[in-house]
Amino acid sequence: MPRHDPLSETTDFLGSQGFSTARFGLILGTGFGACVQAVEQKSVVSYRSIPHFPASTVKGHEGNLVYGGRGDASVIVMQGRVHLYEGYDIRQIAYPLEVMHRFGVEVLIVTNAAGGLNPRYEAGDLMAVRHHIHPIGRKQMGDLTAETDGDPCYDDALRESLLKISIQRKLPVQQGILAWMPGPSFETRAEISLLKSLGADAVTMSTVPEVLAGRRLGMRTAALSCISNVWTGRKGETVDTDDVVSTVESSAGRCSDLLARLVRRMAHRE
Ligand code: HPA
Q1: Which own/partner contact pairs does 43-52 have at CB distance under 8 Å and 24+ positions apart?
Q2: pLDDT bucket at 138, cuts 50 / 70 / 90
Q3: 3-class secondary structure, 33
Q4: Mutate which of 229, 230, 232, 234 to test ligand 1's pocket (most atoms within 8 Å of Cβ)?
Q5: How much is the CA Rg of the chain, to the nearest whole Å?
Q6: Would you call 130 helix, strand, or coil by DSSP?
Q7: What is the torsional sign of CA 84, 174, 163, 156?
Q8: Element (H, E) at 246
Q9: Whole-prediction pTM value?
Q10: What is the structure's pLDDT at 2?
Q11: Which residue from 51, 185, 234, 262 has the fewest beta carbons nearer than 10 Å?
């Protein structure tokens, strides 16, 4: 009797749908779905039809796994992600990364919507992540934090390539520190002032678990945030999810261009 191996069932199924070796993995967060146009799409499969794969349940996440690109620039794209606050545990969040790893992914690029904490940031700004902090909910990260303790996580060469492309394309990209919060509700005023005092430039409810999972699998990682809302610290400040999605969606064209060029540059220069 063959041993029951969920990962092989997942990858066999994807293989039957045209998925094959890929060097790059791309996770498209809230509102980033249209950036799938950064790759020439060869196969598109709904998460719901993939055995053992977690399905996206929140707004702004299409929930498709896409295989595309060609040769050294082949890419597996998660068009939409899953979050811990949707009720998944850290192993389920890490599962898509394990699938990518089986297909050979070595370079992981993760995108997300984030609330701006740095007073110089404006809605619609892009930020390349230099470091992250996750002062709250560390336990939810399971053993991933212990295994990646002290790891710089974000690859300098990858981020520098992204910044060079942004200068060539005249698309400004900030660099900053991303804080992770468990969600699903947006932060309280007190949490915002805590995160600011810790030196965070932006806050998100995603990305850090996936980056930790990717690092554990030996992937080189980069993360790009779109500042979807800014926290000024004014009393009564609220965030509207529809505004978050629409602000990111309006930057999708710029982001697609950056991401497509980053993959091409990494594929051809290395
Ligand atoms: N906080 C946390 N996550 C987010 C935010 C925010 O303000 N905006 C978009 N994702």
Answers
A1: 43/17, 43/18, 43/19, 43/67, 43/68, 44/79, 45/14, 45/17, 45/19, 47/80, 50/10, 50/13, 50/14, 51/6, 51/9, 51/10, 51/13, 52/6, 52/7, 52/9, 52/10, 52/95
A2: confident
A3: helix
A4: 229
A5: 18
A6: strand
A7: negative
A8: helix 241-249
A9: 0.95
A10: 57
A11: 234
